[in-house]
UniProtKB/TrEMBL annotation:
A GO biological-process term: transmembrane transport
Protein name: ABC transporter permease
Annotated organism of origin: Nakamurella flavida
Domain of life: Bacteria
Keyword Nucleus: no
């Protein structure tokens, strides 16, 4: 009698791989579907109220009109979105660099902590509404004033997150390293820097959402291209539908950058993902 090899399912050939992928997909869907459901209900209610109320599009266009007109202007909106994204990324990169340098300096020097932390808190009382036009006056309509507005908007949460993260390092661990002869730099590298990572990524998520808003606002007061100046021009032409289409693109950019921080966190410190409450 001849025995034939029975083909095994893919799950049996590589146990754990396909079920794991399915579990991740199911978990991701379980996380996002409540928000998607709420958004769908709001859009349907918006569409029905505009249709039944016969509201003029200049006052409140329907979601379908916003999508239709936004798609018709996709090339222009895409070009302006790219300009906004460029300003956002450059300003946020500068903010990250300055924040890290200030936070490390404050962590190494108690004098700097006493000197700079009150100034950092005080910087948040400066109204960006007043500062942004001054940046345009001082530095013109180029990229620099918009980059500086993004940096000012996002600097505080990232710097404060790092400063408090460094300070949250375990004291017993510090005493253990000190007993082993570790200097300040080794203690910073092996204890204080890893301890700051959870707060850093939380601050990063807050800062990156502020970054897009900061770039939009800087463009709104003065620019040659970008979603901010595009919204201002369409508002002056009473094209509410195109303003809302640009707002939707802005929200999509913010959400995409927000989600990228989770990907970065997973790459840099994958153990943090399992400790979050929504991952349990």
């Amino acid at each position: 009698m001849t025995l034939r090899a029975t083909p095994r399912p893919a799950e049996q050939l590589s146990p754990g791989v396909a079920p794991s992928a399915r579990r991740r997909a199911t978990g991701a869907l379980a996380l996002v579907w409540p928000a998607l459901l709420v958004v769908a209900v709001l859009l349907v209610g918006w569409q029905i109220s505009v249709t039944l109320g016969d509201v003029r599009p200049q006052i409140l266009p329907s979601p379908l009109r916003v999508v239709e007109q936004g798609w018709a202007q996709r090339a222009v909106i895409g070009r302006n979105a790219l300009a906004t994204l460029q300003v956002t990324l450059v300003g946020f990169a500068l903010s990250l660099t300055v924040s890290a340098l200030v936070a490390v300096g404050v962590d190494f020097s108690p004098w700097l902590r006493r000197a700079l932390v009150p100034l950092l808190v005080g910087s948040q009382t400066l109204p960006i509404v007043a500062i942004a036009p001054l940046m345009i006056i001082w530095f013109g309509f180029g990229v620099l004033p918009k980059v500086l507005v993004v940096t000012l908007t996002t600097f505080f949460p990232i710097a404060l997150g790092l400063i408090e993260g460094f300070a949250s390092a375990d004291r017993d661990g510090a005493r253990l390293l000190a007993s082993m002869g570790a200097g300040r730099w080794r203690m910073f590298r092996y204890l204080r820097l890893p301890a700051a990572l959870p707060r850093f990524f939380t601050a990063l998520r807050i800062g990156v959402t502020y970054a897009v808003v900061g770039a939009i606002f800087a463009e709104y007061v003065g620019a040659t291209e970008g979603l901010g100046i595009y919204m201002a021009l369409q508002k002056n032409s009473f094209r509410t539908d195109l303003v809302l289409a640009a707002v939707a693109v802005t929200a999509a950019l913010s959400i995409a950058l927000f989600l990228l921080t989770y990907l970065l966190e997973r790459l840099v410190c994958p153990w943090l993902g399992a400790t979050r409450p929504d991952a349990r």
